[in-house]
Design brief:
This protein has one domain. The model has no long low-confidence stretch (mean pLDDT about 90). About 70% of the residues lie in helices and about 0% in strands.
């Protein structure tokens, strides 16, 4: 059960990393929407690093 939940969450994070860049193209980089999407991508990347055990690089 836990493994399925983890797998679904990791799949959702991968989908986010695949799809959000296309959405970011719609908004100016300095708009509230563009900034929020940029923060989302940063957060997903930090989470991915931690989950993969690359904790030393999460402070970037």
């Amino acid at each position: 059960m836990l493994t399925r939940k983890i797998d679904r969450a990791l799949d959702a994070m991968a989908a986010c990393q695949d799809r959000v860049p296309a959405l970011r193209e719609i908004y100016r980089a300095d708009s509230p929407e563009g900034l929020a999407l940029g923060h989302l991508m940063d957060a997903v990347e930090r989470a991915r690093r931690v989950l993969q055990g690359d904790v030393a690089r999460t402070a970037d």
